[in-house]
Prior knowledge:
Structural class: mainly alpha
Order of helices and strands: EEHHHHHHHHH
Distance between the termini: 69 Å
Amino acid sequence: MPSPSPAAPELVCPACSTQASGRFCANCGAALDGAVCQSCEASLTPGARFCHSCGHSVGSNSSAVRQPAQPGVASSLPWIVAAIALVMLLAFLGGSRFNSGRSSTLDAPLNALPQVGLDDRGPAQTGVGGQTPVSGPDISRLSPQERAERLFDRVMILNAQGKNDSVQFFAPMAITAYQMLTPLSADHRYDMGRVAEVAGALPFAKSQADTILQQNPAHLLGLILGARIATLSNDANAKKLFETRLLAASTAESARRLPEYERHENDITSAVAAARRANPTSR
């Protein structure tokens, strides 16, 4: 009588810390050891929810072996869908008023860009006699840079509010908006990295930090992003190295007054203070 086959070993999902088996977590859909992107067949980092190579979303319903697909279409499909969603959003909102109410669950696309009286756009204005509201800004007049920044702000606000479903909805749209900007600056890459970070796409976020630091090894935003990814990846050695480099470079780099340093001044101030607390012997 043949002996029964040994059961597959139980794993711990690096994304949600639940017991898992196979190549994708049944609880959160994150990749486990040995998982392969269904779109481009690149090896997936355990815990990843997006492919670092093509950006394709992974999940528990993905297969470790990619089914045959039309060449050149499957690998770019996620970004095509996000780009189409962005174009449809711009066309739908062009010339309309931005006074729609918020949804109680998933923020609707109307809330992705500036609205009168919401977020950091200041109080709503009123018309003659204080009766008729003045229409919100015409989205058609926003530059591609401004649209990307509005989506970045939206993702960060949603993340701070704990609306993960909305973050997952808007993150690909925000990244696509940034990828439409050329050439990509360190500021653009930092924003993309932060969006990818809060969406759980750590390999993509790490690639943005690596690119920033390849161009300038002392760039504060690259060091901050690298430290954040190392923290989320539980890599204490890499975190300490990034923080040490950040403290060594902070004074000279801050004196350069780069536009991206001024825009992300709060991030830099907080990161430097945290690095000093964690590394009191470093300068």
